Amino acid sequence: MSTTTDTTTTDTTGAAHAVAAYAGAVRHHLSDLQPETLDELTGGLEADLNDSLADRLPQAELDRLTLTDLARRFGDPGDYAAEMRDAAGIAPPASVPTGRRTLGQVLSEAARGVGERWSAFVARHRVLTAITPVVRDLRPAWWLVRGWLLYQILQLLVAQNWALLPQNAVAWLVFLAVTLTSIQWGRGAFGQGRGARTIGHLVSALSLIAALPIASNYLAFAENPNRSNTVASYDAGFADGLNAAPPPTPTDGVYFDGTRADNLFVYGPDGQPIEGAQIVDQDGNPLILQPEGGDWRTWDNDGVGIPGSGVPLAALEGDAPLNAFPYRTLSPAELIPEQDGGWTWDSEAVREPQWPAPSLFPLPETHGGPEEPADADTAQSEESEETGSDESSADDSATEESAPEDASPEEND
């Protein structure tokens, strides 16, 4: 339901009343201007509207005209006022914030402010004013460059590589799609809404920012054309080195030439097998061949890899040492679990160790070692013999010395 004022305004017919109402609405949208400026813009507005209507409509229709008819012919009064501002080069009025501004509003206002300042700067310099039409004519070239820059960015993000032009069919398709999109957007074929224009400006700014590092890369390539080959050779050499590197040394278990030992066999110095040989390390710790990635005490719960030789019988009996070799083993398939957590098995299923050789060459006997000491009886007997021999030699010497004295009286007689 309309008010009395609205009814009077909209229902009054006749060109004079409709034109007056329309011109008043236009002046209302320009009310922020100075009175002199407003009078300069709208001083002849009624006469212009009347002349336009008189040239197009007969008198009978002019007598029936309303404000709604004029808005249908000349557009909304607000749009008409905006066109007059634009034609006169007058900026639109600053909007009064009604609350917290959104990010889009901030960016839009910032972009509009930059554009206005740039336009004012160009207007103050004749040189810039003279070259502006030339720059405007070069916009298609910028559209091409922007497409190429966007392709370079995509190439770096997706393929992590640099190439001046596409190197395969898929790359050419991507390049053409990006470039055509840039050209069509520049021509105004799509993306002319406020949000789309904002996104387009951001993409253009990103392209300009990326232009410097992209240009620097290609300048460096021009100075050293073999740089890409050097990098490729380095990458290839690094990959070959990784492939040729030996596998990491295992840290658990006994290995020989990279193969894990499942059993150990001990031979004596005479070359004969020794059953039940207990092996310890340098600290006296028992040497146990645990399953890979687990422990024989919990092997059934660890999900470890059981060696092909099977489970050691000592791990199942519980009281046998696991460092006594060689192991007698059982296949896990032959084990029958019991309710108490133990195992039962058929004695015939026990695998006896298969010695690698019945015997080995005996070790050579060593010579030049310390002599074995004689027993006590032998040493005492030899000492007695030596003592008796010494006493006999002493008696003989005494007899020889006394003999001449006994013979002297005889000779005197």
Structure report:
The protein has 3 domains: 4-88, no CATH class; 104-220, no CATH class; 255-349, no CATH class. It has 16 helices and 8 strands. It is mainly alpha-helical. Helix 2 (15-29) crosses helix 6 (67-74), helix 2 (15-29) crosses helix 7 (77-88) and helix 10 packs across helix 12. It is elongated, with a radius of gyration of 57 Å. The chain has helices at residues 4-11, 15-29, 35-42, 45-56, 59-63, 67-74, 77-88, 103-123, 126-137, 139-159, 169-187, 194-223, 227-244, 299-302, 313-317, 376-412, and strands at residues 255-256, 259-260, 277-278, 311-312, 324-325, 329-330, 336-337, 343-344. The model is unreliable at 1-12 and 398-413 (pLDDT under 50).
What's this model, at a glance?
The chain has 413 residues and is mainly alpha-helical. It has helices at residues 4-11, 15-29, 35-42, 45-56, 59-63, 67-74, 77-88, 103-123, 126-137, 139-159, 169-187, 194-223, 227-244, 299-302, 313-317, 376-412; strands spanning 255-256, 259-260, 277-278, 311-312, 324-325, 329-330, 336-337, 343-344. The protein folds into 3 domains: 4-88, no CATH class; 104-220, no CATH class; 255-349, no CATH class.
Low-confidence stretches: 1-12, 398-413
Shape: elongated
Q: Which H/E pattern describes the elements?
A: HHHHHHHHHHHHHEEEHEHEEEEH
Query: Beta fraction of the residues?
Result: under 5%
Major sheet: order of its strands? 1-2
Mean pLDDT: 74
* Global structural class: mainly alpha
Spatial gap, N to C terminus: 199 Å
| Helical percentage | 55-70%
Number of domains: 3
Strand element count: 8
Major pleated sheet: 2 strands, antiparallel
Compute the CA-based radius of gyration: 57 Å
| Number of helical stretches of at least 4 residues | 16
